[in-house]
Amino acid sequence: MTAIEQARKERGFTQRTVAAIMGISLTRYKSIEFKPHRATVDEADILRLILRKPIRHLFPDLVDGIFRNRDAENHALNIMKAKKENLYLNQRGGRGQMSKTNMYTGAKTWNPFKGCHFGCKYCKPSFQAQAKRQLHNCKQCYEFVPHGHPTRLKNIPSASIVFVAGNGDIAFADPTYVRLIIEAIRKRGGNQTFYLQSKRPEYMAQFIDILPATVALVTTLETNRDKGYSEISKAPAPSERYRQFLALNYPRKIVTIEPVLDFDTDVFADWILAIEPEYVWLGFNSRPKQVILPEPPTDKLQEFVRILATEGIEVRGKQLRGLPLKGIK
Fold it and tell me: Where do the domains of the chain lie, and which CATH numbers do they carry?
């Protein structure tokens, strides 16, 4: 007996009840091979989440582990479909549309567009590895080729920060399709912040006049050094990317320095100060065992942060490996 089945029986739930709670059919439930040790979010994770929490407030028609009638069961199924969307714990068929992201604290990805051709070395064990789980859902997602998912345009997450096309680079999207994404953001309204991020920031120049105030333009600058960068990524060299981003006449800019590569402190700090971002995200390579990158020593990184903080630039920490850097938010 699996731990999942044991938990189900301890709570006194029938398999049909649990299937309804999960938002799947009884046949689907019976076909699942539960593997609690899996690291990915799947139906088993959803079930564990639900069984750990009191659910009677969600399902008043649940009596002794059994729904009173089929209407009550269908009502529960609809509740859980909505709940799973809010938790971004979709079933295999829907995964990849919206999800939690380790890229930015408090952010959710929204993926009406996916894929990239920059081939960044540090992306392969993270985003590209995640894409390999999508073979049975979308071959283009599996191959990480740039493509759109128009059906996702209306399903914008409710997080304070929405990382648009976080599983790709939006510069590879057709401009007509990007305008549809921007229009969906405009209709959303509210006070969320939408990150439109690209390592080819000049691509965003054509949209500046139609961007709503909720959009922040973002680019990645891992270093100021061009030498050797072509071995890490096919994206524009750091100096070219800096020039492109600096040239964008737009009030809301954010810089991501992750994974931070070794840099020249004064030059790199001058770049950031010239851009005048709302804030900067700073972090190390999140896969150091899989990808070895040239990183700055701690004292250099601390001096860099000190310069930015002194000039009023907020630095937000990401993947800092426990380093006690002063000036990090």
Answer: 3-87 (no CATH), 98-318 (3.20.20.70)
